[in-house]
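To close the section, here is one more complete example, presented without commentary so you can practise reading it yourself. The ligand is zinc ion.
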Amino acid sequence: MKKFVVLTLLMTMFFPCGSQEKMMGSALKSKPKLVVGIVVDQMRYDYLTRFAAHYGEGGFKRIIREGFNCKNNHYNYIPTYTGPGHASIFTGTTPKYHGIIANHWYSKKEKKNVYCAADDSVVAVGSISESERMSPHRMLTTTFADENRLFTQMKGKTIGISIKDRGAVLPAGHTANAAYWFRGKGEGNFITSNYYMETLPQWVEDFNNSGRVESYLKVWNTLYDISTYVESGSDLNDFEAGFKGKSTATFPYDLDALKDQNSWFDIIKNTPYGNSLVADFAIEAIKNEALGKDDATDVLTVSFSSTDYIGHNFGVNSKEIQDTYLRLDKDLERLLLTLDAEVGEGNYTLFLTADHGAVEVPKYLQSLKIPAGYVNYSDRKKKFQEFLKETYGTADIIENISNNQIFFNKAKLKELGLNRYEVEQALVDEQISYPNVAKVYTAKAMTSTNFTTGIEALLQNGFNQKRSGDVIIVDDIAHIAYGRTGSTHGSGLNYDTHVPLLFFGAGIKHGETLNKTVIPDIAPTISALLGISFPNGATGRPLGFVMD
Ligand code: ZN
Ligand code: ZN
Ligand code: ZN
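Output:
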């Protein structure tokens, strides 16, 4: 089997045209009725291997056993955040082209901070909240689901589902029939916006009224005996935050007792039950929307967000994370069994990946003598302000600093008669002298040099000339601007870039590769499988070697 994989791989490398034809042929033979794109928020690659001894045969292991495992799959841009991650998976390109440069960023045009999925021109449907006004309008390119809609004369449906709005809205794309996300707080409902529809479908109303959400306000204890969880740190340690109202971050967690101090239904998001809830809702969507029932291929995107909240709260080495993945494995098994029953084994194609990884808690790494630490942005900013005043007489030449990018006030530069390129270079020289700054680049470098390797190439793939800043800063390895408990992500280092990529089902062969693949390869691969146009800004290449 392995030899065959290598041979096919060599063919792909040396005979790109031939393999392209082969792919198009196979697309016609085994076109899936449904494509399911699963994103596990903050899933590091090693969660597949580290917890393998505890996974059942019907979840992750089934996908690997029957499908194709790309074991060296990476993000190829900075920053590795949720919004850019979801956009890149489904558009097959990077922030340079799809424009989702962060979750929140400073808009040079609007002169204000904007959120990647927020849209003031729409209103929430199913929520009384003013803050749930979401659409994909800031994403500049199409997703493979958009191309599938165009190809099928809008007959193929697209549904996006997640706890997080951005995890539902961006993957589903511009032409989606629906994107549903979870409104917690005092509401506890799946909602949408009038970008998609004016009222919720009856099955969504029924789901919200079924008491399913409330049923998860129960005790969270480990799925198996905690003494068998030997692949994670001790439950009680200095590296976890936990919940308000409970003095230690240790099992069990009584969610009903803790909900009042932890934003009511929001507490479900912060436990594995948030993933179970998304699986429940996705199963209802498959049944009630008749996904994969006719000849026009449908697309379902499912993003599991609770993994990310739990990683931020407890860190990547916690018992809580281990339990979350063992439970997610069960939810995946349920989802696969539903797809087998409703769509039929061999009639659907599924892929599973993540929107980014996460770093080990730096304080934990420090305790093991591994270089790591915390960045103090407010100290850095203070020092920078002093430098600006001393050098230019005013700090007003800077309009905004966010996501490790410095944005110029171009009018002020002009007024003072300053050359922007000279100022860019002066700021590079200044910033590189600060603690925990590893590298600094100018916008000019990003737009005038073609970087092919290293951190520079990742920055360039994340650099959108219209939206990104004028000076870009890279922090030291394993250094984060974060509290002393829990993990975060955003860098171009392996702990943030290396994520699972599994393909499974119709048109996919069994195998694995250690050859490097990158996130933008996913959408062109699915497009090739369907025989449809690639997303309009796609820069990845189809992975011919995963196809039957
Ligand atoms: Zn994320
Ligand atoms: Zn714990
Ligand atoms: Zn996160």
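Once you have examined the tokens, check your reading against these statements. DSSP finds 23 helices and 22 strands in the chain. Residues 1-28 have pLDDT under 50 and may be disordered.
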